[in-house]
Amino acid sequence: MVLGALGSRISDALRNMSNAMLVDDKVLNDMLKEIGNALIAADVSVPLVLNLRKAITQQVNMEEMAQGINKRKLIQTAVFQELINLVDPGHKPYVPVKGQTNVIMLVGLQGNGKTTTAGKLGYYYQRKGWKVGLVCADTFRAGAFDQLKQNATKARIPYYGSYTETSPVVVAADGVDKFREEGFEIIIVDTSGRHKQEEALFEEMAEVAEAVEPDTTIFVMDAAIGQAAQDQAEAFRERVDVGSVIITKMDGSAKGGGALSAVAATHSPIVFIGMGEHIDQLEPFDASSFVSRLLGRGDIMGLVSKLQDAGIDQQPELLEKLKQGVFTLRDMADQFQNLLQMGPISSVMSMMPGMSSSMLNSGSDEESARRINMFLSIMDSMTNEELDCDVKFNPSRIARVARGSGTSVNIVSSLLDEFKRFAKVFKKMKGLNMNSRNGPDLS
Ligand code: GDP
User: Fold this and answer.
1) Where is the signal peptide (predicted)?
2) With CB atoms 3.0 to 4.6 Å apart as the test, which of 219, 222, 304, 333 could cross-link to 112 if both were Cys?
3) What is the value of ipTM here, to two decimals?
4) Which atom in ligand 1 lies closest to the alpha carbon of residue 190?
5) Residue pair 233/225 in contact by the 8 Å Cβ criterion
6) Under CATH, which number does the domain 102-293 receive?
C-alpha cells in the first residue's frame, strides 16, 4: 500500500523493541531513532518528528513505570497514538447534507489531479446514492471540459460545461443554477488551475466562489510536494476560503507522509486521499485507519464501509465473527468473494488485517484476483465439514481436494497455510473494540 516502506520500517522498529530481552532506555531510544529516520525519509519535517519523539518519551517514562506494567504494549500504544496525532488535523470537515443542494468547489494548481478528483468525488457520492452533477469552470485550459466530460460519461454522472463561453464565472453560475433547479444534491465545480499570473488565478477563484456560493471549497494537492504542502496549503487558505484538503497521488509518492503531516499541521481537515488514476481510487481519510493500515494492522472500519459501498449486507455478521475471533474456511471463502466485488483489490487488501504479508497480495490487481479465484475454486471442492473446520485436513483429503479442483497438493497446502495465518490474525482480534482509536493490538 501507500508508503509501504515507511510502514515496514516503523513496524520493524516496533518489532525489534518488542523482541528485546529487556526494554530499557537504550532500546526505546533506538526504536525512536529508527521511527524518526523513517518519517524523515518520507519527508515528514524535522520539527514534527522531534515533537513526536518528545510526546512518546513523555508518555513512556521508564524510571517511573510501575513494576508489572506491560512496557512493550504501552510503548506500542504511545507510538500508534502519536502517529495518529501526526496526521490528524483535529478539525471536522463540512459534511454534505442529504436532501438539499451541496455545492463543492475544487481549487488547486494545474496537474495536481483536480479534474480527475472531481470525477472520483462525483462517483464516490453517486455510489452512495446521491444525485450528483459536475460543472467544468476551467475555461482557461483547452481540453479541460473534454477531460471532465470523459470522466463523467464513464461514471454516468451528468455534467455541465461550454466550448464557447470564455468566462469561468458565467459557466460555473449557469451550471450550478441548472443542477440546483433540477434538485441535484451534490454539485462539484472544477475550477482552473493555471493562469498567466498567479494573482489572476486567485482572483478568478474568488469570483467563481462569489458566483456559486459553495458550501465548501476543497483544495486539491499532489502528495509529491511533501512537507512543502504546508506553505502551499496556507497560501491557498489565505486567498480562498478552503474548508478541507484532498491529497492526490498518495499511491505514487514516497513523500506522502510529509504532505499529510504538513497539511495536518495547518489544521485543515483532510477529507480524501487519491490512491490511483482510476475513478474508484479515492478513499475517505481517517487518521486512525490510515495509521492502522500503514502498520499493516488492517482497518476493520474501512473494510466495513467498503462492504457497505459494495452493497454487501453482512457486516453485522462479519463484525460479530471478528469480535469472537471465529474464522473458518467458509468465512475466508466469503471474504474472498467480497474482495472481488469491492473495487481495487490492493486497496481493500490493505484494510484486511494480516493481508499485507499475504501471498495473495501480489501488488498487481489482476494477479491477486487470479489467485483469489483459484483459491475459491479449491474451496468449492471442499465438503461442508471441511469448510466449517469440523475436520482436520490429512494428506488424503488434501489430495482429493487437489484432484477435484484440478490443482496440486502444493497449491491446496498453500491455501491451508494462508488460512492458518488468517485465522491466527482473526483470533488475535477477539474482543476487539472496533471503535478504539488505538487500533487492534496485533503485536
Ligand atoms: P488537474 O490539472 O489538476 O485537473 O489534474 P488532472 O486531473 O488532469 O491530473 C493530472 C494527472 O494526475 C493525470 O494524469 C491523472 O491521471 C493523475 N492523477 C490524478 N490523481 C491521481 C492519483 O491519485 N494517483 C495517480 N497515480 N495519479 C493521479
Assistant:
1) none
2) 222
3) 0.98
4) 4
5) no
6) 3.40.50.300
pLDDT of 26 higher than 80: yes
The CA 31 to ligand 1 mean position distance, Å, reads 37
Domain range summary for the chain, segments of one domain joined by +: 4-87, 102-293, 296-428
- pLDDT of 441 > 50? The answer is no
Name the CATH superfamily housing domain 4-87: SRP54, nucleotide-binding domain (1.20.120.140)
Q: How far is the CA of 202 from the centre of ligand 1 (A)?
A: 21
| Global pTM value | 0.77
Q: What is the DSSP letter of 43?
A: T
Mean pLDDT of 312-326: 64
Instruction: Tell whether ligand 1 has an atom less than 6 A from the beta carbon of residue 111.
Output: yes
CA dist 108 and 121 (Å) reads 15
276 Cβ below 6 A of ligand 1: yes
We find that the CATH architecture of domain 296-428 is: Orthogonal Bundle (1.10)
Does the CB atom of residue 110 touch ligand 1 within 6 A? yes
Which mutation among 2, 106, 116, 245 tests ligand 1's pocket best, with the greatest number of atoms within 8 A of CB? 116
What pLDDT, on a 0 to 100 scale, did the predictor assign at position 1?
42
pLDDT, residue 298, reads: 66
Please tell me if the CB atom of residue 251 comes closer than 6 angstroms to any atom of ligand 1: yes
Nearest to 179 by CA among 119, 101, 127: 101
Residue 372: other Cβ atoms inside 10 A = 19
pLDDT confidence tier of residue 175, bands split at 50, 70 and 90:
very high
First to last CA, the chain: 20
Say yes or no: CB of residue 185 within 6 Å of ligand 1. Answer: no
Q: Residue 282 in contact with residue 121, Cβ under 8 Å?
A: yes
Length of the chain: 443
The amino acid at residue 379 is M
